[in-house]
């Protein structure tokens, strides 16, 4: 490793450094450039971003400049014997300190950490700042000088203290961005693995995301179409109903009202209509508009998808008989009572009687309410 000898005075022009610190907030950004600027400002030989856990004694270097894989490995190996971390009390967030404040240089040279890590790499003096703390876990920036170099003093501590708050904020922002990105990726993965066609749209039907099922099959098989990036019903007679349902759910969600709708869409050349569930998905900031929009999740059970009565949560929860379950499935799938009776080969009165019993067991008062209840309990996965 080629080591730069420190200059007599640390640089104090902080503008380029502060710019790079906040530019590195990107969760995928590289902190090497930031550490290089910190090393230059503090006339150090090596700068590191590291973490240490006091309870376990585990520690590791996240990034170091100049890059030195051997030093990184040895530092982690000797982390539990690092004499600078014998006590956690000194490592308060935002504190800047020198290694000599934690352990005298006379005692440092007697330690295994010095003999096994510092001396082989020509390092001795240490200046550190605690960027963040989570219980027994700390994240810190460290800058090292050699034994023949001048020790760190108050001037260097003052310069370091001026940038440490910016380093801490950049780290916190990066972690939040990464957490949000990871959570968004996870949730999109859940939607993508959904077996039925699912789309995230805004109140005007503009599509934000389509799951794999939507990409793998034509949306026309679900009674839908996409025109100019907007979701619409395939049949002209259903378009107003779908657009109204999406808009009403988005508006109701913003006002904490009822935010779920279910409707049946006509599908050309299909035996059954497609059952569409429209539910609130939550708010999201949109770069395109610069505003927070309510998103709606539109999920579709295809007209050719059979409903398994034996595993249906709705049937189990309300204890529907097999005959009642068959009638109920037909109704929530968008069939009329007359069509249900014809397809099940029963009289209209028998179908009507079963439906009345379903209303009683589910405490619903109409087919629309029954469809909404079924959608809330089963979703589109049963």
Describe this structure in words.
The chain has 382 residues and is of the alpha+beta class. The chain has three domains: 15-185, Transcription factor LuxR-like, autoinducer-binding domain (Beta-Lactamase, 2-Layer Sandwich); 195-305, PAS domain (Beta-Lactamase, 2-Layer Sandwich), CATH 3.30.450; 306-382, Arc Repressor Mutant, subunit A (Orthogonal Bundle). It is built from 14 helices and twelve strands. It has helices at residues 15-23, 32-41, 69-77, 99-102, 105-108, 112-118, 154-192, 212-216, 236-254, 313-318, 322-332, 337-344, 348-362, 367-378, and strands spanning 46-53, 59-65, 96-98, 125-134, 137-145, 197-201, 207-210, 224-227, 230-233, 260-265, 274-286, 291-301. It has a five-stranded antiparallel β-sheet. Strands 7-6-12-11-10 form a five-stranded antiparallel β-sheet. A hairpin with an 8-residue loop joins β10 and β11 (274-286). α1 (15-23) runs antiparallel to α2 (32-41). The protein is elongated, with a radius of gyration of 32 Å.
């Amino acid at each position: 490793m080629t080591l730069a000898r420190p200059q007599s005075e640390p640089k104090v022009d902080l503008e380029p450094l502060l710019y790079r610190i906040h530019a590195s907030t990107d969760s995928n950004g590289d902190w090497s450039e930031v550490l290089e600027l910190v090393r230059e400002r503090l006339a150090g030989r090596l700068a590191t971003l590291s973490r240490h856990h006091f309870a376990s004694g585990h520690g590791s270097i996240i990034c170091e400049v100049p890059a030195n894989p051997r030093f990184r490995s040895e530092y982690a190996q000797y982390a539990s014997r690092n004499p600078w971390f014998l006590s956690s009390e000194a490592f308060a967030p935002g504190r800047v300190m020198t290694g000599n404040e934690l352990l005298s240089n006379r005692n440092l040279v007697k330690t295994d950490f010095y003999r096994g890590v510092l001396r082989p790499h020509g390092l001795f003096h240490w200046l550190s700042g605690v960027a963040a703390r989570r219980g027994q876990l700390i994240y810190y920036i460290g800058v090292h000088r050699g034994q023949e170099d001048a020790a760190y003093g108050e001037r260097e501590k003052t310069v370091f203290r001026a940038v440490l708050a910016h380093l801490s904020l950049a780290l916190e922002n990066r972690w939040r961005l990464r957490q949000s990105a990871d959570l968004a990726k996870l949730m999109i993965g859940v939607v993508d693995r959904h077996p039925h066609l699912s789309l995230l749209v805004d109140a005007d039907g503009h599509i934000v995301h389509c799951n794999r099922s939507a990409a793998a099959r034509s949306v026309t098989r679900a009674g839908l179409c996409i025109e100019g990036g907007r979701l619409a019903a395939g049949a002209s007679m259903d378009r107003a109903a779908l657009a109204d349902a999406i808009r009403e759910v988005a508006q109701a969600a913003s006002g904490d009202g009822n935010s779920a709708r279910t409707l049946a869409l006509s599908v050309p050349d299909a035996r059954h209509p497609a059952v569409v569930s429209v539910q609130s998905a939550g708010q999201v900031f949109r770069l395109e508009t610069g505003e927070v929009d309510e998103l709606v999740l539109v999920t579709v059970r295809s007209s050719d998808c059979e409903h398994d009565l034996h595993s249906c949560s709705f049937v189990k929860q309300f204890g529907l008989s097999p005959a009642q379950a068959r009638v109920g499935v037909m109704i929530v799938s968008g069939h009329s009572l007359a069509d249900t009776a014809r397809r099940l080969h029963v009289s209209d009165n028998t179908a009507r009687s079963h439906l009345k019993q379903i209303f009683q067991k589910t405490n619903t008062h109409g087919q629309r309410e029954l469809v909404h209840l079924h959608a809330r309990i089963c979703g589109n996965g049963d």
